[in-house]
Amino acid sequence: MATGMEAKYPATVLEVYGPDGTGPLAVERSIAAANDGGRWVFETFGDPYPFEDLSAYTRRSKAARFTADLLRAYLLALGVPVDEEPVWAESWLITKAEGPSPPRNKGRPSAELRVPGLLESGTRVNLSGGSGRLRDC
Length: 137
Description:
By secondary structure, this protein is mainly β. It has one helix at residues 68-77, and strands spanning 11-22, 27-35, 40-45, 93-96, 111-114, 123-127, 130-135.
C-alpha cells in the first residue's frame, strides 16, 4: 500500500515484553526485518510462538522474511485487536518520575509506566535508559 510517504529505511518489527522475558526489558520475543542503512537484516530473539510461520524466515530475501502481512497475522494471534479503535481509557500511561534518579541511573531520565490491571505493584522495568516502576492504576 503506497502512502506517498515511503520510508527511506523501512522495517517490520514485533517485540513482545512480559514477565517471562529476559534482560532488563523482559523481552520474550523479538522479530525484525529492517533496512539498516541500505542493507537488509533479519533478526529474531526468544522462543518462537506456535503460530509463527517459521518457513518464512528462510526466504532468500531478508525483506520478505517478516512482512506487514505476517506482522498483522501475529498481532491477531496474540489477541491484539488491530481492526478495532483503541479503548483509550485502558491505554498505558508513561510519565516522567518525580524526585532524584537512583544512583545507578545518575543523569539518565526515569519514567513510570502504569498499566491498568496488568502486573503486581512494585514490578520494575527499564524505560528509555532510565528505571521505572510498573504498578496498577
